Amino acid sequence: MAGNDWINSYLEAILDVGPGLDDAKSSLLLRERGRFSPTRYFVEEVITGFDETDLHRSWIRAQATRSPQERNTRLENMCWRIWNLARQKKQLEGEAVQRMAKRRQERERGRREATADMSEDLSEGEKGDTVSDLSAHGDHTRARLPRINSVDAMETWVSQQKGKKLYIVLISLHGLIRGENMELGRDSDTGGQVKYVVELARALGSTPGVYRVDLLTRQVSAPDVDWSYGEPTEMLTPRNSEDCMDEMGESSGAYIIRIPFGPKDKYIPKELLWPHIPEFVDGAFNHIIQMSSVLGEQVGGGKPVWPIAIHGHYADAGDAAALLSGALNVPMLFTGHSLGRDKLEQLLKQGRLSRDEINKTYKIMRRIEAEELSLDASEIVITSTRQEIEEQWRLYDGFDPILERKLRARIRRNVSCYGRFMPRMAIIPPGMEFHHIVPVDGDMDGETEGNEDHPSSPDPHIWTEIMRFFTNPRKPMILALARPDPKKNITTLVKAFGECRPLRELANLTLIMGNRDGIDEMSSTNASVLLSVIKLIDKYDLYGQVAYPKHHRQSDVPDIYRLAAKTKGVFINPAFIEPFGLTLIEAAAHGLPMVATKNGGPVDIHRVLDNGLLIDPHDQQSIADALLKLVAGKQLWAKCRQNGLKNIHLFSWPEHCKSYLTRIASCKPRYPQWLKDDDGGETSESDSPGDSLRDIHDISLNLKFSLDGEKNGSSGNDNSLESEGNASDRKSKIENAVLAWSKGVLKEPRKAGTTDKADQNTSSGKFPAVRRRKHIFVISVDYDATTGLLEAIRKIFEAVGKEKTEGSIGFILSTSLTISEINSFLVSGGFSPNDFDAFICNSGSDLYYSTLNPEDGPFVLDFYYHSHVEYRWGGEGLRKTLIRWVASVADKKAENEEKIVTAAEQLSTNYCYAFTVQKPGMVTPVKELRKLLRIQALRCHVIYCQNSTRINVIPVLASRSQALRYLYLRWGVELSKMVVFVGECGDTDYEGLLGGLHKSVILKGACCSVSNQVHANRSYPLSDVMPFDSPNIVETPEDFTSSDVRDSLESLGILKA
């Protein structure tokens, strides 16, 4: 255990009082334990390691106690605490082993089933199980994606970008983000990620081919933060404005766009943002639609310019990016920065908090689910190093390196993956600015003298602070820059330096270990590391050879690198594991060779720069040998320096942006499909419905202009309904009717929610009625019996009877039912389909409109909605897996092992696989079914509905809340003009219906019995994501009446009192 010198004194104290522990006066507890040796127990059980911070504080108190008896008592108590911690440590280790074994078994089973479904013979490239194979995780830096190796290559790439006008959206929600004077380190949310996303946006905005970059974040207008964080828009000035003058336009460049969401006038930590993310999504959705329209007028020839990609940073932004990607039907990218599963494992190993306490503090399960959703929705996951993929992403259900390799091989061979998808892992190191760095060419022995024209500048102050430690400051400097943290392995470095006499004679050692005023004011862990370093300096008599200054500014760091380079020194990072290693790149830019750990990111950096040596951080001799080799070998030192300076541009922002845009270009473009037919009202042959639909015959079975199928007692997807004799006429009728409904978007974009009289009077047949309403009421009350839903609808209709008659309010019915069930339900309740403008069916996988044309029947399907939500839909491969799961779920205690779940073919559609649950209390929790499907690379949205009596499996980015966003995008139905009615609880997609810009009315007493079964086994508590303090949510009294409903609407400002 690094930095535990206090333990030595504690051990000595135990030895000193050892006999006293066996006295008759010693505690009864110790006597009851028999011949207990605290010394032996400490050495055998505790020295292997646990977090001793609290014990250290106790030991300080015990050491300060004057009374021998009280001191002995304190030491006894510490022995008991050590015993308890060690026992807890063993228990945690056992639990960790069980978790890993269970995860391995689930992975192997899922992999076998997925491989069995993909029945075609595997190639040799698919059969390998080597996790370390590069193609399983990302691209080799030298093979699959050649890096720029010359100025000519960069100029060639730049010329290829000319003429492109790309729009990119970046999202980073937490922390305080601004373009200049960033308050890095102000709190735990404002750190390296803030700097990275700002510099990425700035660099992309200056890249040829990129017209505009929007960095979306939270608008913060709190009294305890600077006013600049409340500004809606901030332009990021490019570093080299001369390079992008020819690309400038009216709205071009990079911008920080601050979207208001969450508590007003309050800056809150990221753990409390989860309930408010839907509100951000709606605000960002509105901004992107408006900006796409503006850019279309400027550079798109009048057609909207949609984002080429939406890039989420960290889990919260990944969750938002997934929803925006689905709502807009554009590609998504994701960068995790730090990952929830890895943090959960680390916290569990520490043993200080239980899983429930960890979740309560960090909302870790909600974070993990957001990261899983990001894997489901992302085209590309960008990482900094291969270590992040191999050690962290492989912990997730949605990413299996071995299965990813098999799928990638099948894609290269143009072989079906049977509905299975895996995001591509792309290793793109963060960029850096190098234009201001001038490598030092002189040395300490031959310094360039100034003259009258070019006087030499005085040495930086930090040089004096460092060199005052040295007897001979002209010797090469070994530089380490790291916090005094045990993980940074500084004590092993000092030992290696102290025990290698040739190294001590040739070089000095400089340790930049943060800032401190006094050791007593440091945290116990950092203080113990620093004390260990000081004791090692004394042990090896390193005075005059090791520098460890107390203070330095961030602006001093480049000067520290320059000093080390001037002495022909070496930079070292001996950490046990280094996720990336940004300091290695900074050092290389100043001409310093490196010695770095072989664990983590430095391996990738060394592969690119080839400017040093890798070492085993646990091998003290390896560290000394590598340092001596570079310090003593002048030719090797010069070669490493030259390689570093030659290749450092590979980590520049232009190179980062080049790799970034190359990756995006490999994604299949996606955007709202109906926009193809907007221009001139004509449909080209290539864009005809027959071409855009994969099978017009299959779609026709769902696109019902009458309910003939119901009259004949047939299901919605029964192929027997269509005969070959009338298939052609049927197809023609469908195409003509669909086109009459699908060309409803005007060529000129209009503000959401606006209508004109001409539209209302002359175009009533062209546009659905939902477009003409002042407000839209969405009834999403999830009763498990239709009688309760009928009663709720009647009360809502009665509450707004006058407005309903006037036509200012329209209604949408949003349920888990099929359109056939809805029709029967309406008829039985005495309602007409024309009482509603639209119907969101099958938990959001289907969208229908009502129609007044008797020839068309009561409902018309929006088939463009299917093309909007079908992303990564597993189709037949998913259906087979679900059928296999249904067969495996049985009540083994019952006679003949009765089935718990059965397939409901009559309720299923092309984009919704429905299952009936016979025994809701025994069904697999929703989180377990989602996990099973993700392990097999099947991306879908599993919803338990109707009080767990039905399971709907729909496309991953489809939902009832996403359908509302589609209506805004498609028809301009403004989200803030919608009112969603829900019960006290509902289906497992219930949380998505509450947050956002729309208003919500919770009908108290409705669906109150649902939560016991549906939400009991959630992966995270519903309370973690419910925006209880939102002004957009009101509740009715228990056993509400129509007047209660109207009072709630008046309180929201929807109706006038």
TrEMBL record:
Q: Which NCBIfam families match?
A: sucrsPsyn_pln
Under which name does UniProt file this protein? Sucrose-phosphate synthase
Q: Where is this region: Disordered?
A: 94-140, 675-694, 707-730
Q: Which residues form the Sucrose phosphatase-like domain?
A: 837-1002
Record note on quaternary structure:
Homodimer or homotetramer.
Function summary: Plays a role in photosynthetic sucrose synthesis by catalyzing the rate-limiting step of sucrose biosynthesis from UDP-glucose and fructose- 6-phosphate. Involved in the regulation of carbon partitioning in the leaves of plants. May regulate the synthesis of sucrose and therefore play a major role as a limiting factor in the export of photoassimilates out of the leaf. Plays a role for sucrose availability that is essential for plant growth and fiber elongation.
Recorded metabolic or biological pathway in which this protein acts? Glycan biosynthesis; sucrose biosynthesis; sucrose from D-fructose 6-phosphate and UDP-alpha-D-glucose: step 1/2
Q: Which Gene3D superfamilies match?
A: 3.90.1070.10, Glycogen Phosphorylase B, HAD superfamily/HAD-like
* CDD domains registered for this protein in UniProt: HAD_SPS
> Could you say which protein family the record assigns here?
Belongs to the glycosyltransferase 1 family.
Biased amino acid composition, Polar residues: 712-726
Instruction: Provide the catalytic activity annotation.
Output: beta-D-fructose 6-phosphate + UDP-alpha-D-glucose = sucrose 6(F)-phosphate + UDP + H(+)
What's its EC?
Answer: 2.4.1.14
Q: Where is the composition biased (Basic and acidic residues)?
A: 103-115, 124-140
Any one GO BP annotation for this protein: sucrose biosynthetic process
UniProt enzyme class: transferase
Where the record annotates domain Glycosyl transferase family, the positions are 471-645
Q: Which domain of life is it from?
A: Eukaryota
Q: What keywords are annotated for this sequence in UniProt? A: Glycosyltransferase, Transferase
